[in-house]
């Protein structure tokens, strides 16, 4: 085998590789000898098929498979001998000087080029020099009370009422929605409970049912908001033929231990404790996201090195597709966002570069420090994923079992979080008490 480096520029490498024809022929001969004891061909007893006859029948087909195998094996060996780490699988191109017919006939050398980019080499810095603030907020008792009030209101009893419905009353209705006189998909319902003034339906709908009594039929005229999620309805005028079945008034609501037991809890204090824990979990998640972001910002400033262009381009294409899809769904243009397509692409390319750079840093840190994700952790993540598709759990499990690349998408974020925890364990992390609003304030990606 002959190896010639034809390009060495930054992270880019290109190699010209030559595998002699006699090496390929030797492999073919060996394969045919192994095959002759297994194949069944009319006119020949088992194991008595002449190799020359077998070569005429399947030689070209087998040689094509051998060539594919040799290309992969050769590249892996050469890269390993050169102590290189390609960022992606090398791109392979057969030399134009090779005649395909002669190659599969075993009469020509296999000549091809392998083009690839290397993973950049960089030194892991001392994480003890990193200092980040972790915003934390105390759970106010008023927030627990607000959550409790929302649950209570959602479970308020209603009692049948004679006469006209008022704001705050609940009506049970049948309705058929129409646009230009024709019913539209998803615009009908039967036995639907609606609390007037709750804002559950589109603006103007509930107001027009105030004053209605059981048995009344009304035509409600509304317009769907311009930003309505269903684009085929957004901004369109519609009418709803509504029949009021019943009217109910809010009943007395007493929030006490007895009420809590009806919800399946042992006491009102236990319910408050659960709510407090849920709120604390939300705070912890927000705090975690903020300190992680602060850490990544610092790492992004510490590590500066050349990036494999293919990795950056792949990351950018994913980001850009998501951006374009979201803008299309929202019916917005770059002008609406006070920018241009060119400026937006430049911004998102910087984001792609940041993500690739930080991904390489976290990967290197995890590898050097033997950070591992266990099979049990992946299994738990798979269970959580399956729960997102009620009724399709079996199909989800089967898909991930048969698709290693998909399973890797579950392992990757677990690995990242573990590496972040490892670095935070080495860094100087200072808690800073902040207000709830500041804790949950969103920040744009740099």
From TrEMBL:
Residues 168-250 form the PPIase FKBP-type domain. GO terms for cellular component: cytoplasm. It comes from Prosthecodimorpha staleyi. The gene is tig. It comes from the Bacteria. Pfam families: FKBP_C, Trigger_C, Trigger_N. GO terms for biological process: 'de novo' cotranslational protein folding; cell division; protein transport; protein unfolding. Consists of 3 domains; the N-terminus binds the ribosome, the middle domain has PPIase activity, while the C-terminus has intrinsic chaperone activity on its own. Belongs to the FKBP-type PPIase family. Tig subfamily. Its EC number is 5.2.1.8. It catalyses: [protein]-peptidylproline (omega=180) = [protein]-peptidylproline (omega=0). Involved in protein export. Acts as a chaperone by maintaining the newly synthesized protein in an open conformation. Functions as a peptidyl-prolyl cis-trans isomerase. GO terms for molecular function: peptidyl-prolyl cis-trans isomerase activity; protein folding chaperone; ribosome binding. InterPro entries: PPIase_dom_sf, PPIase_FKBP_dom, Trig_fac, Trigger_fac_C, Trigger_fac_C_sf, Trigger_fac_ribosome-bd_bac, Trigger_fac_ribosome-bd_sf, Trigger_fact/SurA_dom_sf. SUPFAM superfamilies: FKBP-like, Triger factor/SurA peptide-binding domain-like, Trigger factor ribosome-binding domain. This is Trigger factor. The keyword Cell cycle applies. It is an enzyme of class 5 (isomerase).
């Amino acid at each position: 085998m002959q190896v010639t480096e034809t390009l060495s520029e930054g992270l880019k490498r290109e190699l010209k590789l030559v595998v002699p024809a006699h090496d390929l022929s030797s492999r073919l001969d060996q394969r045919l000898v192994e095959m002759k004891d297994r194949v069944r061909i009319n006119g020949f007893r088992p194991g008595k098929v002449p190799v020359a006859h077998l070569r005429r029948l399947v030689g070209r087909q087998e040689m094509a498979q051998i060539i594919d195998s040799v290309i992969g094996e050769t590249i892996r060996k050469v890269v390993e001998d050169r102590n290189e780490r390609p960022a992606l699988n090398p791109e392979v191109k057969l030399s134009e000087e090779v005649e395909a017919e002669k190659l599969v006939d075993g009469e020509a050398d296999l000549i091809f080029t392998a083009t690839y980019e290397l993973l950049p080499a960089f030194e892991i810095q001392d994480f003890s020099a990193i200092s980040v603030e972790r915003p934390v907020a105390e759970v106010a008792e008023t927030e627990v009370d607000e959550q409790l009030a929302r649950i209570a209101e959602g479970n308020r009893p209603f009692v049948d009422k004679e006469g006209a419905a008022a704001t705050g009353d609940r009506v049970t209705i049948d309705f058929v929605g129409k646009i230009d006189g024709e019913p539209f998909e998803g615009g009908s319902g039967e036995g639907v409970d609606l609390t007037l003034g709750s804002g559950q339906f589109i603006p103007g709908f509930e107001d027009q049912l105030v004053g209605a009594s059981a048995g009344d039929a009304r035509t409600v005229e509304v317009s769907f908001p311009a930003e309505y999620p269903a684009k085929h309805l957004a901004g369109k005028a519609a009418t709803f033929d509504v029949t009021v079945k019943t009217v109910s008034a809010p009943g007395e609501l007493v929030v006490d231990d007895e009420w809590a037991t009806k919800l399946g809890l042992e006491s009102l204090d236990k319910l408050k404790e659960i709510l407090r824990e849920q709120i604390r979990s939300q705070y912890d998640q927000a705090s975690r996201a903020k300190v992680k972001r602060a850490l990544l910002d610092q790492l992004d400033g510490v590590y500066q090195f050349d990036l494999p262009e293919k990795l950056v381009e792949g990351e950018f294409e994913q980001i850009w597709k998501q951006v374009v899809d979201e803008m299309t769904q929202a019916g917005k243009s770059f002008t609406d966002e006070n920018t241009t397509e060119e400026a937006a692409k430049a911004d998102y390319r910087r984001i792609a570069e940041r993500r690739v750079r930080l991904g390489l840093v976290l990967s290197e840190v995890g590898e050097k420090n033997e950070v591992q994700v266990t099979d049990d952790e992946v299994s738990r993540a798979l269970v959580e994923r399956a729960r997102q598709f009620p009724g399709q759990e079996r199909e989800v499990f089967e898909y991930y079992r048969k698709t290693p690349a998909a399973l890797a998408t579950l392992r990757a974020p677990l690995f990242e979080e573990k590496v972040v925890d490892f670095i935070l364990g080495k860094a100087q992390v200072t808690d800073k008490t902040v207000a709830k609003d500041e804790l949950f304030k969103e920040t744009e990606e740099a």
